[in-house]
Amino acid sequence: MRERKIVRLIIMSNISRRQFLKGAGVATLAVAAAGVLAGCSKEDVPVIPEVTTRPVMVIFMADKGNGETVVVGETAKIDVLKTEDSVKVADIDKKLLPEDYHLENEKAVVEIRKDASKGEYIIVFVTDVTYTPATKEVDIKVAITNPKAGEAVMTTVKANVKKDATTISAAEITLPDGFTWAEGTEMNRQYDIATYVFPIKHIA
């Protein structure tokens, strides 16, 4: 009986020692993290889950127009530094976004909110609408009528036109510094973008 009691005491002693060491390790880590948080700027704080960061829920919402907003997809969780009270949406992993949606405003910075039931969370607006530019950039062919020695006669300049445009006038084109239109150019006449060559010249 005495031997069994000694064995039991040894086992209990080992368990207590392990628990003590584990507790001491956690305490040391927490103290070190506190020192890191206190001594570093926001940019220098290392990301250590549950030590220097805390989980924040991300709720994705979409604006359907007429003042109606709806929750889309599933909520996600991100790790945010304990020193931060807001999140740059551009830093959110794109894999967390609802399928077929993208950020409505990648430059947005959203405030971290707190709710008794949800805990800390942010609301991020997403959209399934793909922006289509109203204009396009095209190359306009020009010919220099008074080229300098060694200068190519034919070149191109850039111009912005409506997305479905097939013609352009000289009045819509901005020439590089030092150039002007050659004599006889009809400034408001529409010319085919793909084929017409505009005559230009160096300013004397």
Automatic annotation (TrEMBL):
Name of this chain's protein: Twin-arginine translocation signal domain-containing protein
Record keyword Signal present: yes
InterPro entries: TAT_signal, TAT_signal_bac_arc
Keyword Signal: yes
Signal peptide: 1-38
Keywords recorded for this protein, A-Z: Signal
Organism whose genome encodes this protein: Faecalibacterium prausnitzii
Pfam families on file: TAT_signal
Highest taxon of the lineage: Bacteria
